[in-house]
Amino acid sequence: MGRLFTNNLNIGYGEQIIVNDLSVSIPDKQITTIIGSNGCGKSTLLKAITRIINHHSGNVLLDGKDILKENTKALAKKMAILPQSPESASGLTVGELVSYGRFPYQKGFGRLTKKDLEVIDWALDVTGTFDYKFRPVDALSGGQRQRVWIAMALAQETDIIFLDEPTTYLDMAHQLEVLELLQTLNIEQQRTIIMVLHDLNQAARFADYLIAMKDGKIVKAGNCEEVMNHQVLKKVFQIDAEIGRDPRTNKPMCITYNLLKGENKHEENSIPSHFALSAHS
């Protein structure tokens, strides 16, 4: 079992339950990606695990402790989150924004220490944003800003980083840039990365572990071979997918797909625990 897991988690807004009785263990020091259609509860799950929103029942445990009982600053030293739409950084320089990541370590009047300044420079350097340190965040491109937000998360010096759709609104090159950065952080620094992605092939390419959700429940969780296949995608997205192999990574990828129509769209066939990957070559 990993350091982080949920137990019979129920999450909702008001009386409406979005995530229902969900139990999952997040692999340590790996990249976990959550996939599913819009409104299935992906972002809601992320917000509950990181204590942005409260859950109705069940619990989220980190290192054996319920996160609801953890001190805020203590928790912020263990996990960082980059939300889907980060708050405006209008008027801030890149260095100032990244310095906010040091909040959990500040005492008294919150003046930055020598250690804080060293960590800020390190986070800027590792994300390739050091040259922007004194530039306004507003003056950067979308990809550059996203890397700066990741630098702020790194400045928290947490072992676990959550990202909610980190490639949204970015072009293909900048999407790849951000995902490769996260992969490097995972491989070289052993950071545990948990993120939500919409692009199935990006999810399969960069993830070690996939969680496929539908209607607030987990349909399938496992490695890419177990999740990225015809049957799971049919159940989660109601699509008839042709699965092949990425020639560069040899991981499964969706080559093309059709929408399921009529009665087939609503089929709720159970998924066997083990079945062969539907690959077409």
Helix and strand element order: EEEHEEHEHHHEHEHEEHHEE
Distance between the termini: 36 Å
The helical percent reads 25-40%
Instruction: Please tally the helical runs, counting DSSP H or I stretches of 4 or more residues.
Output: 9
Protein name: Iron-enterobactin transporter ATP-binding protein
Subcellular location: Cell membrane
Domain ABC transporter: 4-240
Organism: Heyndrickxia oleronia
What does this structure look like?
With 281 residues, the protein is an alpha/beta fold. Helices cover 29% and strands 27% of the residues. It has nine helices and twelve strands. The chain has helices spanning 42-49, 72-76, 94-99, 114-126, 142-154, 172-189, 200-206, 224-227, 230-237, and strands spanning 4-13, 16-26, 31-36, 57-62, 65-66, 79-82, 160-164, 192-196, 209-214, 217-222, 239-245, 252-259. A six-stranded mixed beta sheet has the order 6-7-8-3-9-10, with helices on both faces. It has a four-stranded antiparallel beta sheet with strand order 2-1-4-5, covered by helices on one side. Helix 4 (114-126) packs across helix 5 and helix 5 packs parallel to helix 6 (172-189). Residues 266-281 have low confidence and may be disordered.
